[in-house]
């Protein structure tokens, strides 16, 4: 793996972990960190030996947003043409499930990064927010679109328009996070979820993730059409035969990801 300065990566079996590591800036997303994060994530996504990716930060911060100091003097064209943060489209198109393991602050771009993931596990110390309004801007990594889809228009409007943060318990109640766990077991829990996903049939997992994404982006009729095709296609895989035979034979399936 290439040398990195703002992230650390690790693979254990079929699970890859990316740890954001800019402790001096609460993991603020500067151009170097974003480049390294996207490069690492896309490399893991292209590796069929990896079945799930965990993205995490430190105990104090998942990420406190885009790097304000780096952005401060940029202009319209800088931002519109991609600014310091190009490449997210590739991240959003990844097929491998991504689990955000969030402790501490997940603010602005940090909250938006978590929302780009498929599953958000929150430590009881997690704090989510879109405080961009305090800086004279608005969310720019999808927060104004994904937050209302996750927690509803009125709660999202309060957060985006006032900059108020919400704690882990409120985030779980609101549907922003999959589950809250004690801070000291966050990574173990995230790895357990990742290992469970990575033990399944890769083609089935890819298709299920894609169907869930279609559900976020399309009307029900279109989503149902997609699901019908994807479901039928699953019956062309060897893993479908193996999974169903293993059930009938009362044994664990041995998926070959074919
Ligand atoms: N950017 C740069 N540096 C940061 C950031 C940040 N987002 N957050 C924290 N830091 C730095 C601080 O400046 C400080 O550095 P130093 O020690 O050199 O002064 C260090 O991290 C520690 O921070 P604090 O001393 O402030 O720590 P506290 O515990 O007192 O406060 C907070 C923690 C509440 C999280 C506070 O740091 C804070 O409010 N941070 C900013 C949060 C924020 O506004 N985030 C949104 C940023 S804008 C954004 O994300 C837009 C994304 C859209 C991009 C679209 C591109 C296309």
Automatic annotation (TrEMBL):
EC class name: lyase
Lineage, top ranks: Bacteria, Bacillati, Actinomycetota, Actinomycetes, Micrococcales
Signal sequence residues: none
PROSITE patterns: ENOYL_COA_HYDRATASE
Protein name: Probable enoyl-CoA hydratase echA8
EC number: 4.2.1.17
Protein family (similarity comment): Belongs to the enoyl-CoA hydratase/isomerase family.
Reaction(s) catalysed by this chain's protein: a 4-saturated-(3S)-3-hydroxyacyl-CoA = a (3E)-enoyl-CoA + H2O; a (3S)-3-hydroxyacyl-CoA = a (2E)-enoyl-CoA + H2O
GO biological process: fatty acid beta-oxidation
Key words of the record: Fatty acid metabolism, Lipid metabolism, Lyase
Source organism superkingdom: Bacteria
GO molecular function: enoyl-CoA hydratase activity
Function as written in the Swiss-Prot or TrEMBL entry: Could possibly oxidize fatty acids using specific components.
Keyword Lyase: yes
């Amino acid at each position: 793996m290439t040398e990195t300065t703002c992230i650390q990566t690790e693979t254990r079996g079929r699970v890859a972990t990316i740890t954001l590591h800019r402790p001096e800036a609460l993991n603020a997303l500067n151009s170097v960190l974003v480049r390294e994060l996207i490069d690492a994530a896309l490399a893991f996504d292209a590796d069929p030996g990896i079945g799930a990716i965990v993205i995490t930060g430190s105990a104090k911060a998942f990420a406190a947003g885009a790097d304000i100091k780096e952005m401060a003097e940029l202009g319209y064209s800088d931002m519109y043409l991609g600014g310091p943060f190009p490449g997210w489209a590739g991240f959003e198109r990844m097929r491998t499930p991504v689990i955000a393991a969030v402790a501490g602050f997940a603010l602005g771009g940090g909250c938006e990064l978590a929302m780009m993931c498929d599953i958000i596990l929150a430590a009881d110390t997690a704090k989510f927010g879109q405080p961009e309004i305090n800086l004279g801007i608005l969310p720019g990594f999808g927060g104004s679109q994904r937050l209302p889809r996750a927690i509803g228009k009125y709660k999202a409007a309060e957060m985006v328009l006032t900059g108020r943060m919400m704690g882990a318990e409120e985030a779980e109640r609101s549907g922003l996070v999959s589950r809250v766990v004690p801070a000291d077991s966050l990574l173990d829990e995230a790895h357990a979820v990742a290992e469970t996903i990575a033990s399944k049939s890769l083609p089935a997992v890819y298709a299920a993730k894609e169907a869930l994404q279609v559900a976020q982006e399309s009307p029900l009729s279109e989503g149902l059409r997609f699901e019908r095709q994807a479901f039928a296609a699953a019956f062309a895989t060897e893993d479908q035969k193996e999974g169903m035979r293993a059930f009938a034979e009362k044994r664990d399936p041995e998926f070959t990801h074919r």
